[in-house]
Design a protein that fits this description.
The protein contains one helix and nine strands. The chain is an alpha+beta fold and 134 residues long.
């Protein structure tokens, strides 16, 4: 019995390691310092760089490996927060009764931190966004 448990240990650890790499990465806010808004700009989903279905996939990490957690229609407004390579961390309103201003990122935070507000968040290909205001 002990031998079987020892032999299965590497398999169990590999499963834990795979799960750890699949953890969502919440975009950070406040990266521009305590004098700037938590997210420094607003972007619009561009029509020109969308997949065939016309919706921008939103991923839980700055990579397109794995499943998208959401999809955004063209012209959707999003807050621009953390950047990682070619990926833009975003915060966006969702639902019929939520607006972009409800996301609580238009005021400063004391130090960089993972977004923890009421809106949705994720990562999108930065090339799919156009800057509206900063």
């Amino acid at each position: 019995m002990k031998l079987a448990a020892i032999l299965l240990l590497p398999v169990a650890l590999a499963g834990i390691s795979a799960q750890a790499t699949e953890m969502p990465q919440v975009p950070k806010v406040g990266l521009e310092g305590p004098e700037a808004d938590a997210c420094v700009g607003v972007g619009r989903v561009s029509r020109g760089n969308l997949p065939r279905d016309g919706r921008l996939p939103v991923f839980p990490m700055p990579t397109d490996e794995g499943r998208a957690k959401d999809h955004l229609a063209s012209d959707t407004l999003v807050w621009l927060c953390e950047v990682e390579g070619e990926w833009q961390g975003i915060v966006y309103a969702s639902g019929e009764f939520q607006e972009l201003g409800d996301c609580r990122v238009s005021t400063p935070v004391s130090s960089p931190q993972a977004y923890a507000g009421p809106c949705q968040w994720g990562w999108v290909a930065a090339r799919s966004l156009h800057l509206v205001t900063s």
